[in-house]
Amino acid sequence: MIELAVFDMAGTTIDDGGAVYRALESAVASTGATVDPGDLQTWMGTDKVQAITALLELGGVAPTDELVTATFARFKSELAEAYRATPPFAFDGVPEAIAILRSRGIRVALTTGFDRDVTDGLLASLGWTVAQDPAGEISDTVTLDAVVTTSDVRAGRPAPYMIHHAMELTGVHDVRAVLAAGDTLVDLEAARNAGAVAVGVLTGALSREALERGPSDHIVDGVAVVPDLAETRG
After folding, report:
1. How many CA atoms lie within 13 A of 73 on its CB side?
2. Which residue from 186, 113, 178 is spatially nearest to 145, judged by alpha carbons?
3. Residue 46: which residues within 8 A CB-CB, separation 6 or more?
4. Residue 125 confidence (pLDDT)
5. What is the DSSP letter of 177?
6. What value does the mean pLDDT take over residues 213-229?
7. Is residue 234 over pLDDT 80?
8. What single-letter DSSP state applies at residue 205?
9. What pLDDT was estimated at residue 35?
10. Which of 49, 101, 184, 193 is 20 to 30 A distant from 157 in Cα terms?
11. pTM of the full predicted structure?
12. SS3 of residue 99 by DSSP
């Protein structure tokens, strides 16, 4: 049985109605760059500064440090406003699935392409709490064991560092005892690069056919059914 389940946030555990897509597209387009939908999808799930840099260049605008910084600030502002107008919520069955996994002794961590400021605000709006000692005894008084953002590592997805940092925080030593799930191809690439069981979920923007182009061990309807996988049942 796995010892750690690592889940992406927006589109995987949390339904934000596509707000992050719209905010990223709007912020990049505000610079005069052309945003191709395919390019936008390719860079979803990655570190947002990295995504903005790539999308600016792909859209015909030089990604200077000053412009990237300003565009990232606009992205965060537009996303925060979208979340205030329409607060995100957990996908059906996700809180229950997380609780079931943790009741089996499986630690649960979230990873995200957001920075720490955005992530903390999102968790607070959901009322989700994080263990003070991620490697300690699993407590049913908190929602999660750990949360890792791109602020915490040298590079975001598809690098494996966020998953490996979640392992470090929770005291899990064997990559074969880790399952990582997400709704984008870079989520699956990061899982494979980390040596974890790679699970694609269909709660995001990609179809089953699109996700099957990535390196997956399972494609499932959503995180809610992860406790039904053999790897989580012992």
Report:
1. 6
2. 178
3. 113, 156, 157, 158, 186
4. 87
5. G
6. 98
7. no
8. S
9. 96
10. 101
11. 0.90
12. helix
Lowest-confidence region among 18-22, 56-60, 105-109, 174-178: 18-22
What 133-140 contacts at long range (C-beta under 8 Å, 24+ apart), as own/partner pairs, is 134/107, 134/109, 134/169, 134/170, 134/171, 135/169, 135/170, 135/171, 138/102, 138/105, 138/107, 140/99, 140/102, 140/103
The amino acid at residue 108 is V
Return d(Cα 189, Cα 223) in angstroms, integer: 18
CB 128 within 8 A of CB 144: yes
The DSSP code for 154 is S
What stretches of the chain show up as alpha helix (H) in DSSP? 19-29, 37-43, 48-58, 65-85, 94-103, 116-126, 161-170, 185-194, 208-211
